Amino acid sequence: MCRSLRYCVSHCLYAAMTSLEEANREVNMHSSVRYLGYLARMNLLAAICMGLYVRWEKTADALILIIFILGLFVLGIASILYYYFSMEAASLSLSNLWFGFLLGLLCFLDNNSFKNDVKEEATKYLLLSSIIIRILYALVQRICGCVHQRPILLTTVEVLELVGFAIASTTMLVEKSMSIILLIVALAMLIIDLRMKSFLAIPNLVIFGVLASLLFFPSLHIPTNPFPLGYFFSCLIADPLLDVYFSGLSVTERWKPYLYRGRICRRFSVIFVGLIELIFFILSALKLGDLDLWYFVIPGFSIFGIFWIICHIIFLITLWGFHTKLNDCHKIYYTHRAENNSLDRVMASKGMRHFCLISEQLVFFSLLATAVLGTVCWQKSNGIFMSVFLIVLSLESMAHGLFHELGSCLGGTCVGYAVVIPTNFCSPDGQPTLLPPEHVQELNLRSTGMLNAIQRFFVYHMIETYGCDYSTSGLSFDTLHSKLKSFLELRTSDGPRHDTYILYYSGHSHSSGEWALAGKY
Questions:
Q1: What are the backbone angles phi and psi of residue 468, rounded to the nearest 5°?
Q2: N or C terminus: which one in the chain shows less Cβ crowding within 10 Å?
Q3: Spatial CA neighbour of 462 closest among 494, 411, 414, 504
Q4: Rounded to 5°, angle at Cα 435 from 431 and 441
Q5: Over 60: is that where the pLDDT of 360 sits?
Q6: What is the DSSP string of 426-466?
Q7: Mean pLDDT of the chain
Q8: Between helices 263-285 and 383-409, what is the axis angle to 10°?
Q9: Calpha distance 216→233 (Å, rounded)
């Protein structure tokens, strides 16, 4: 008895210690990964401080010194909020906004006169090491499973750093500042495009990188420091780019912040897209003022401009129609939420798959028209045009990705028809024999229960019900033939045939497999 008790106690202690060791190992792993993130931030802080110091030292600009001291003051406030008041969200928000602003200053302050200075070189190496550590941190986080994937378009950190960088651009002239702010908006759209894992997100990323680095910033004729600019771009792109591979969210989970948005917000999003498209077309038309290549620009704009207008009218109508159908799906979803019906199932039952498959092709032509018109009307000295062009590409890429993903993952429409014919006869020896009354009553009850079960099956799986026929006296061949013919010719409200037709029959059948419609052999 004592030996058994000791055996149980020892095994319980062993199991508890094993669980504790695994928990400690997991905590240690998560802590190590977090320290890697802290190291990247400390490197960035050191790089920003050294960069601002060398600029103040070489230019003797009092404003830089004020910003530097103010930055340290803000960092101190953020630390106090974090450690003494446990206001983690406010602390991180303040620090991220300020980091974005200071990175913007490092990008746009002229460093040509001291680019070979030792401190400036050290700043570059610190920024490079920060980029490497930051990307490594994001990669290790995902490999170790330390990231909790959640449906979101832009994180708070990304929004604040983008806003801070945009604020820093206001130190320049209005036109150049507006170009950079619009480029920041395009970068935000690109981040969303990557996070949604759109089909054309990676090509869109390549186009953004090439245009921004080779054409956009040279067109502004301003001194830019590529190292803080590279850090800013790399750190914002790293997480969504890695999530293209590591994210395990489904299509509707990724698009949840948009698909589950209110009806008015989604309608306004379509209007916003239309306004952006109109602005892009107006900016493209400014190319007509270039008289040097009038023989190429005027015919090209006339032909491809008309093609662009036609494609984008269809594009906007398609988006509006999609949201109309989505509103109908929302009504059904919220009505039947207690029945555990997901929005995916509701959209499938309403024929969204067929709509998305067609819309995908239409949006692709719109995207192609935008690329062609942008190429024909390219303005190498107009940064606003380039930024709006990148915004439009990202928006249309997201629309194409949404329709492509929904068309691939949603189920098709389905319609069902059930025929239940209870019988009053049996034929054990080949001759029909009338069943006893109690057996007949039992069979009728079973048939009624079966009919109710198939009706519940249709309702639960949101299968459109063509009919559930129940007849104790049997059905004639002509009656059933006409019903089956009408059933198999049934179409959806949009016009195409259903993807699946379910026919259920419960009743006697002949030895050859033919239905015994009269209820007997």
A1: -130, 100
A2: N
A3: 414
A4: 150
A5: yes
A6: E-TTSS-EEPPHHHHHHHHHHHHHHHHHHHHHHHHTTPEEE
A7: 83
A8: 140
A9: 14
